[in-house]
């Protein structure tokens, strides 16, 4: 993709949407871990959290109680490190109480998404990951319409769990992408087996292979499977960097492999 040339998106090289057909599949988890894996691969990464009713990524990155500042170009994103290699913008930073419910009608949500897309001063980024709400709602259309005003979208990653009910919902997400002209970069099967915290054996609690089979049926790239790992869950709850803490785990290997495939697909050196 050619480098963007419009305003705050001018130095953002690649934009990737993270989508799921339904809630509860770990889409925000995948977004967070992909961002951390990209950072560990030496890339500058941003996360735009437009899951307005469930902004969980600030907690996952342990930056909940943070004020957002203004600069001449708009909002300054919140950085997770002194080197400014991972930036985040989320509605979670704009709520006085993190437990506050976002009870807004569509036009107000659409307006905020427009501001998020145009008014965040990202600076230089290799990849901007956009964490979206579940489903195919007005928010998704608002993201696409506003993004296309300011940049190109490289494509979308679809997150599913192995069960048929989840892969069925992702089929609708695939249809949404095709209707809106968004390239599908690949499918990730999350919660693909349970990793025992004692012996590290992986058991198929739900089922396995649904995401890979869906990728074959729809002609999409299968990026890989990520198991349900208690160590990953506790790291997210505590706002710790799982990839840094458990570099020898099978879950790290799975996330890192997906990260490298994404980098290859985006043709990032």
From TrEMBL:
CDD domains for this protein: Mrp_NBP35
InterPro entries in the cross-refs: Mrp-like_CS (IPR000808), Mrp/NBP35_ATP-bd (IPR019591), NUBP2/Cfd1_eukaryotes (IPR028600), P-loop_NTPase (IPR027417), YlxH/NBP35 (IPR033756)
Superkingdom field: Eukaryota
Gene Ontology CC: one annotated term: cytosol
Residues that hold [4Fe-4S] cluster according to the record: 196, 199
Signal sequence, renumbered to the chain: none
Keywords associated with the record: 4Fe-4S, ATP-binding, Cytoplasm, Iron, Iron-sulfur, Metal-binding, Nucleotide-binding
Cofactor section: [4Fe-4S] cluster
Biological process according to GO: iron-sulfur cluster assembly
The keyword Nucleotide-binding is annotated on this UniProt entry: yes
Record SUPFAM superfamilies: P-loop containing nucleoside triphosphate hydrolases
Family: Belongs to the Mrp/NBP35 ATP-binding proteins family. NUBP2/CFD1 subfamily.
Annotated protein name in UniProt: Cytosolic Fe-S cluster assembly factor nubp2
Organism: Takifugu flavidus
């Amino acid at each position: 993709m050619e480098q963007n040339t419009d305003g705050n998106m001018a130095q953002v090289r690649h934009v990737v949407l993270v989508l799921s057909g339904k809630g509860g599949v770990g889409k925000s988890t995948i977004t967070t871990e992909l961002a951390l894996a990209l950072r560990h691969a030496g890339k500058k990464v941003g996360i735009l959290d437009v899951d307005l009713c469930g902004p969980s990524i600030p907690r996952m990155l342990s930056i909940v109680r943070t004020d957002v500042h203004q600069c001449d170009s708009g909002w300054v994103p919140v950085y997770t490190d002194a080197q400014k290699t991972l930036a985040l913008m989320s509605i979670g930073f704009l709520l006085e109480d993190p437990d506050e419910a976002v009870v807004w009608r569509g036009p107000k949500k659409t307006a905020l998404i427009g501001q998020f897309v145009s008014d965040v001063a990202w600076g230089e980024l290799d990849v901007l990951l956009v964490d979206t709400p579940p489903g195919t709602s007005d928010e998704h259309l608002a993201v696409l319409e506003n993004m296309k005003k300011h940049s190109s979208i490289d494509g979308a990653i679809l997150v599913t769990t192995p069960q048929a009910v989840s892969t069925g919902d992702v089929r609708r997400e695939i249809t949404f992408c095709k209707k809106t002209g968004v390239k599908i970069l690949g499918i990730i099967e999350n919660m693909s087996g349970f990793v025992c915290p004692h012996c590290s054996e992986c058991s198929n609690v739900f089922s396995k292979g649904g995401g890979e089979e869906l990728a074959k049926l729809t002609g999409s790239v299968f990026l890989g499977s990520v198991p349900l790992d208690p160590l990953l869950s506790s790291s997210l709850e505590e706002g710790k960097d799982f990839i840094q803490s458990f570099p020898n785990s099978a879950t790290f290997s799975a996330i890192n492999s997906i990260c490298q495939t994404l980098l290859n697909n985006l043709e990032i050196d």
